[in-house]
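Hi,

I'm pasting everything inline rather than attaching a file, because the server keeps stripping attachments. The sequence lines come first, and each chain or strand is labelled.
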Amino acid sequence: MTETKTSLTRRGALALAGAAVGSGAITGFPTLWAQNIRNITLRQLGTGVSGLNPIAEQVKKDLGFTLQMTVTDTDAVAQRAATQSRSFDIADIEYFSIKKVYPTGVMQPIDTKRIRLADKIVPIFTTGRLTAESVIAQGTSPYSVGFVESKDAKGFASARTELMTLLPTIYNADTLGIRPDLVGRPITQWKDLLDPAFKGKASILNIPGIGIMDAAMVAESAGLVKYADKGNMTRAEIDKTIAFLIEAKKAGQFRAFWKTFDESVNLMASGEVVIQSMWSPAVTAVRSRGIPCVYQPLAEGYRAWGSGLGLMKHLSGLELDAAYEYLNWYLSGWVGAFLNRQGYYSAVLDTAKTFMTENEWGYWMEGKPAVSDIIAPDGKVMEKAGAKRDGGSFLERMGRVVCWNSVMSEDRYMVQKWNEFIAA
Amino acid sequence: MRADVELIGVTKRYGAAVAVDGISLAIPPASYCCLLGPSGCGKTSTLRMIAGHESISDGDILLAGRNVTNLPPAARGTAMMFQSYALFPHLTALENIAFGLRMRGMGKAERLARAAEFLRLVQLEKMADRLPTQLSGGQQQRVALARALITSPKVLLLDEPLSALDPFLRTQMREELKRLQRELGITFIHVTHGQEEAMALSDIAVVMDQGRIAQAAPPREIFEKPASAFVARFIGGHNVLELPQGRFAVRTDRTRLAPAPAGGGPHLSGHVTAVEYQGSAVRVVVQARDGQTAEALLPDSLFHASPVAPGEAATLGWEAQEAHPLPRDAA
Amino acid sequence: MPRLFPWLQAAPLALVLAVFLLVPVAMLVIVSFYDYDSFSLIPAFVLTNYREVFASFVTWQTYLKTLYFAGITWAVTLGLGFWLAYFLAFVVQNQTLRTVLFVLCTVPFWTSNLIRMIAWVPFLGRNGILNGTLLATGVIKEPLEFLLFSDFSVILAFVHLYTLFMVVPIFNTMMRIDRRLLEAARDMGAGFWQTLWCVILPLCKPGIGIGSIFVVVLVMGDFATVRLMSGGQSASVGLMIANQIGLMQYPAAAANAVVLLAMVLLMVGAMLRVIDIRKEL
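And the predicted assembly:
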């Protein structure tokens, strides 16, 4: 998921009010803090999704040290991590980015022995399966790039070890957003994006790594291409996917391709587009303008993304201790509740639950109808009592993830072909 | 004889201000006419109205008997040579001169050939391909002159054409202008603030003051019979004196130092305030007891025969017929 | 020592230029010959990056598209900019009014690219003001789709943004034209168009040159406007480079940047041959 600075102000406002909602009941903290911990400043680089000021303020309150956040977009986080790793201490970075960044040797693994709630982390990240029965999804699943064998390893471990590359923090399941008032029929499958009825009113996102996945979901749904692994396509699969995209583009199916959060909100809200790739908070943003918008669950399942916190190689001593304290705090509930309340999911659910009301937990996590109004962090009514979350509960949504955002082996070729599609 | 240029009650107003106040003037054919006056007297506005670059608030302008009041410049048969020449900086001397023909749609070869002739007329044939910035002030002026003449105007209008030149070049160009005017046999109207220039060039000089014509006459007549104290002062070489008999203009070169009132003739007594040696003549300034000043321009031999020094008592005298009576106007 | 002095005086600027211009460009050229995989740059001397630039049909298409945007934008901004400058320089006589009008010209720059694009949507969109008005007045039966997310809207946005860059230098040269030259032209029988063509236009050439360089260079290097206003449906070289940087394909991006730089330099060089802008400096 890519997020630009422009949407930060609004998110900041959301989050600020969220901070007031969360109570300050922290237990089990901290351990052996020397007084000089207060002088420590940790610099975190991340996207606007989770690079929110209220989190930094809460860190100051609960842990005493300063967390300095720099916010940029997904690609820039990966670039800076790989090229200017000393300019910050903690990377708030996506799993598919870490696949590229970790092997460059700029990071150190996280010792799970020092993470108190390591075993409480949602099993998607530790075993690759949400439940014992679920299959491991295609693409760069967090599990596949979540562990390393040793401190100096450049490759990823094939199974869980005691060393994590990233501490998972935030993730979600993405699908198509629709304007129920304008589509005029039930939308059930990814291939509905190609319905001639929506000619000139469809859109997909123009971030090649993610756009190609949405395109693959559509192509597969339409029976045009059968992929071995959508997250790691062969050249032939890429060719076929791009060919169908070009065909659709030439036929005038697409109104636009978007790249930023605000663009997607605007396309949908203005009615220029009635069906498109979308991110969950963008759907909420459209709805908050009083315009109907549904984050439509589809038969084929979801495309998911996740990000986590990683430690840069140069961290050591007291700063490293502080960083571990911060990681532990991240799982301890306050942030979890804060993120869950915005429609994302947090890594340890039990602790987050203690910071949420029953109504909130029911609506966001269990797919139950809201018993009273769901209030947005800025105090506006987000959903009226009785509303149900699109797609239902955590298990229904995350349990139907078929593919993760990814980096392919044929990445270079894919981007070339994507550029061809855009230029066509 | 029909006049070449005739102004009838021509007025120019800028809002409430009157720049030219109902002037009437007839300039005989093929004459050199100078519009003369201090800055702000309306001479340039008058010229620009004749040229058609300034609208006329009131009155009419006739060129060769034809009313041109509402015609554009090019339809009037006039051409103007601008102050500081206004040569086109992106065109060569030759192209500048050919510009007027180009505007008339003459073919390139033909107009350049014609322009070359005019370049020869002003003796600049070697400078054909130079840009204006590569020419001296005098050369620029000749190009401007040639450019104005190439369209065969009936009247050439010159706006302070000599003011940008150094004194030596100025005299030289003056002769050349006069020669050209004679040879071409057309009317030149030349705006200047220098009376010497006007004296040297004009067949008819028009002295202007505050938007009106103070006097329009051949230079000799103006010098010998100034129409007003303003003209006498502006033209120079005159003492304007308030005497019991009235107001008079007396030429300074006809004023003499007299030891005593010669037979009760007109005189002015006082003391010498300045003595200036000017080579062939000496200028002696005398302040009278009533505060008036007057001067005498004495041939050097006469002065040296009985010199005076500042502070000494002196009396200025002149022959009675030299005193030219002036009207008692506001000036 | 006195001989050294001029060198010392030039040194600070030379140093700044060296550090902030020459070194980065040199780096760009060097990196363009590197190899890479998805994780890292591999220092080497390979021509693959350039081969990909020149061999790919898409690259040619994208460069052509960028030239097409630059060409049309240049022509439209020149036409508009010239007359706006003419209006400001020769028609408006009041200095205060002139300043106010200039400030108005900068309005497009008061907000960010993204906001500006978003602001076009309610105007040009399918349900936008323009379509609404045209439908209401019966001029059209169906909303005009080409108004937004099309080449038209890209060029419209470019023109909206960059006309000012044309207006300012042309206005500057116009203000320097001695008004007596216009009178002289009129005196010699030039009409309005003749004066414009034979006097004003040649004297504005340096301003037109500078404005053209601004506009062409800005459009050639753009990636945000093309992406936003075409709704991502058109490519530009800048966008292609941005995509490559996004995927950490730095050598490929560098090769593209070098080619783009060379192309822009050639275009600027060609313009400088036609127009001597030193007159303006």
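The longest strand of chain B covers residues 17-27.

If the labels don't parse on your end, tell me and I'll reformat.
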